[in-house]
Specification:
The complex is a heterodimer of chains A (113) and B (563). Chain A is built from 4 helices and no strands. Chain A is mainly α and 113 residues long. Chain A has one domain: Orthogonal Bundle (Helix Hairpins), CATH 1.10.287. In chain A, helix 1 runs antiparallel to helix 2 and helix 2 runs antiparallel to helix 3. The longest helix of chain A is centred in the C-terminal third of the chain and has 32 residues. Chain A is elongated and about 70 Å long. The N and C termini of chain A lie far apart (54 Å). Chain B is mostly helical. Chain B is globular, with a radius of gyration of 22 Å. The chains are: A mainly alpha (113), B mainly alpha (563). Chains A and B meet through helix 1, helix 2, helix 3 and helix 4 of A and helix 5, helix 6 and helix 21 of B.
Chain lengths: 113, 563
């Protein structure tokens, strides 16, 4: 139970960073933290059926559930793509406004005609 | 070719076609317009799926289902496609909307092969999300949909669009993390990724497993809810849809927000958790009303349209939440009708804004001068969304009202109808009023105006014709749609005098309300609420509250299930 709660704590840490941080780059980092928490949770869940690698050789020793790992590999790839794109957008916004403060950017866009 | 193999091509055609513009970008000379390869790709990827769908119609009507598991894997863990009636229906109108938006973009010009690559990739992700029959493939499609839409929104690199895209990215990625969390719970409870098999396993599972699954479903619903943008997950939508290029707005508002709704439909029909479904009736009705009030407050014409998407999705959701076969039919039909008329409105109003040089509705007087196509498109779209017969909006809204029934949700939806009529009367009054003499120099050259008109003729007029044509053919189309969306339910529809009188009454009340909003005091009041509920922090907070609400409902529903 404790490892699960720790994953939950990581998730909430990322969430708090996302909501309360005004720096665009730190928001992106917070998203990555959130994503990692769920990935950990899946891998943890998969490891409960056994600890051996899932190479089936005829012996019926308990193996790790391979499916969550396969899924999380995909989720990591998707996460990398999203992070990269978010950073590109942040860089573009910084070029345009000279700041990474989300609230300031928001106010300046609002004041544009 | 067997229907199974054929169904694969719905998703495969756009994917393969997307390679053509990419090759053109990589190996051709640098260009700012689509070249021959991009054109061919767009034709294959946008019109191709429609042809395939036409062939598949007999296989899916009246409850038929076409199944396909890729690569001969076991159905419980492999990538699985399922084409059923609702999927066929959604796939068809998604392809129509994408095709019209694509025709507009091609004739308008200014979109490079990169754009076409992303546009086709986006269409592919929409089509395969509609076919996906396992939770994880659905996740991948949703993320592809989102990734392409972030880039498409910011394609013109305007500051507002860049920031809107960033905000959308933040909130939808946070929500997809919760989708994955829901998937974790559901996989733990059912041990399968297939949507259908999860339903079967859960039907005979122990109460503890069913409780976990109910909680998981609630998180899945929340993650999808951000993409569908119903209340309270709507905060990102007005800015993103308003600042995107017009064809992209049309695609996003017309098709994309519906695709996640149909995914929701598929997931929730596998396991009956009444609490969750009933909450959709209330969230939908409240969202329809709130969206329309905020739409009335907008001065940016495209932002006004975007708020109406929030409101119209509320109608769809309310009908779905009603849970009856009539509700399913109404939800599906209204989603399609909204796809047609909202993309039409985005294309026509967007073109008028280009011609006027401003998106501010108060500065767009006489914007339709020299653009009769845009005027026609706007009028057809506005009459459809305000549900005046014989347009398709009148048919679908009538069915929604019937499905939602009386009581508070019904009253909220009726109020939303008056508000819808009011805000389109407001736009109409502003657009068709005479401009102040000598106040405006044309924002576009004659050549540009010509391109704009050609774009409207290709993209907007077919949509306008569809809005009217499908409405006129409703007595024949509604039973056919029922065969796809709610097999076994016999529906009949005919325009009635009393219905027409009611629509006219609503329109008249709306017109009076529009005059009140346009008065100086109304304008001052509206201006104060213009930005309500769309800041980046508000969006995230509302989304999290919504997730907490759904989780609480799901958890509660899970407890009450008898073992």
């Amino acid at each position: 139970m404790i490892p699960r709660l720790l994953c939950g704590a990581i998730l909430l840490t990322g969430l708090a960073g996302l909501v309360w941080n005004r720096n665009l780059i730190k928001k992106v980092a917070a998203l990555s933290v959130m994503n990692s928490a769920v990935i950990l949770l899946f891998v943890l869940g998969g490891s409960e059926t056994g600890i051996r690698s899932p190479i089936l050789t005829g012996t019926d020793l308990p193996v790790v559930d391979p499916l969550p790992q396969a899924l999380m590999l995909t989720a990591i790839v998707v996460g990398v793509a999203v992070t990269a794109l978010a950073l590109v957008l942040a860089v573009r916004l910084h070029e345009r406004f000279g700041t990474l403060d989300s609230r300031e950017i928001e106010e300046r866009i609002r004041d544009e005609p | 070719m067997s229907p199974e193999r054929l169904a694969l091509w719905i998703a495969l055609l756009p994917l393969l076609a997307a390679a053509l513009p990419l090759l053109e970008k990589a190996f051709g000379r640098p260009r700012t317009e689509a070249g021959p390869a991009s054109d061919l790709g767009a034709l294959l990827g946008l019109a191709g799926p429609l042809a395939v769908l036409a062939l598949l119609y007999p296989a899916v009507t009246d409850g038929g289902i076409v199944h396909l598991t890729l690569g001969e894997w076991s159905p419980s863990i492999g990538i699985r496609y399922r084409l059923d009636g609702p999927a066929w229906f959604a796939s068809a109108f998604t392809a129509v909307v994408s095709l019209c938006a694509g025709l507009y973009a091609r004739a308008r010009g200014g979109y490079s092969p990169t754009f076409w690559f992303l546009f086709l990739l986006c269409h592919w992700s929409l089509q395969s999300a509609l076919l996906a029959a396992d939770f994880f493939h659905l996740f991948v499609c949703l993320e592809l949909m989102a990734l392409t839409s972030y880039v498409l929104i910011a394609y013109k690199k305007e500051s507002a669009a860049l920031f809107a895209s960033f905000n959308y990215l933040m909130v939808s990625t946070a929500a997809i993390v919760f989708y994955l969390f829901g998937l974790y719970l559901l996989y733990g409870a059912s041990g399968t990724l297939s949507i259908e098999e999860a339903g079967r396993v859960l039907a005979s599972a122990r109460p503890r497993e069913r409780g976990l699954a109910a909680l998981g479903l609630a998180f899945l619903a929340g993650g999808l809810g951000v993409r569908t943008a119903f209340l309270p997950f709507h905060g990102w939508l007005p800015d993103a849809h308003a600042s995107a290029p017009h064809p992209v707005s049309a695609l996003l508002s017309g098709a994309m927000i519906k695709v996640s709704f149909f995914a929701q439909w598929r997931i929730l029909s596998l396991a009956e958790f009444p609490m969750l479904r009933e909450s959709f009736l209330w969230l939908g009705a409240a969202g329809a009303c709130a969206g329309v009030v905020l739409a009335l407050c907008q001065s940016d014409a495209k932002r006004l349209l975007a708020w109406h998407s929030v409101s119209q999705v509320g109608y769809v959701l309310a009908a779905f939440g009603a849970g009856s076969p009539a509700g399913l039919l109404a939800a599906g039909l209204h989603a399609a009708a909204h796809g047609l008329f909202k993309s039409l409105l985005f294309l026509s109003v967007g073109s008028a804004a280009d011609a006027a040089g401003s998106r501010n509705a108060y500065r767009m007087a006489g914007a339709f001068r020299g653009l009769p196509e845009a005027a026609a498109g706007f009028v057809f779209g506005a009459l459809s969304i305000a549900a005046l017969p014989p347009f398709i909006g009148a048919v679908s809204k009538d069915l929604v009202a019937y499905a939602a029934g009386g009581g508070l949700p019904g009253a909220l939806l009726l109020a939303a109808s008056v508000g819808t009529a009011a805000s389109f009367s407001k736009l109409g009054i502003l657009f068709f009023s005479a401009p102040e003499p000598g106040s405006r120099t044309p924002a576009l050259s004659a050549v540009e105006l010509g391109r704009l008109r050609a774009a409207l003729r290709r993209g907007a007029l077919p949509l306008a014709a569809l809005c009217l044509g499908t409405g006129l053919a409703a007595p024949a189309l509604v039973p056919a749609a029922a065969g796809l969306l709610a097999p076994g339910y016999t529906a009949a529809f005919a325009f009635s005098l009393s219905g027409a009188a009611k629509s006219l009454g609503i329109a008249a009340a709306g017109f009076a309300a529009a005059r009140a909003v346009l008065s100086p005091r109304g304008r001052a009041l509206a201006h104060r609420f213009e930005r309500l509920g769309t800041g980046s922090e508000t969006t995230l907070t509302l989304t999290l509250l919504g997730l907490a609400l759904l989780a609480a409902l799901g958890g509660w529903a899970g407890r009450g299930i008898p073992g």
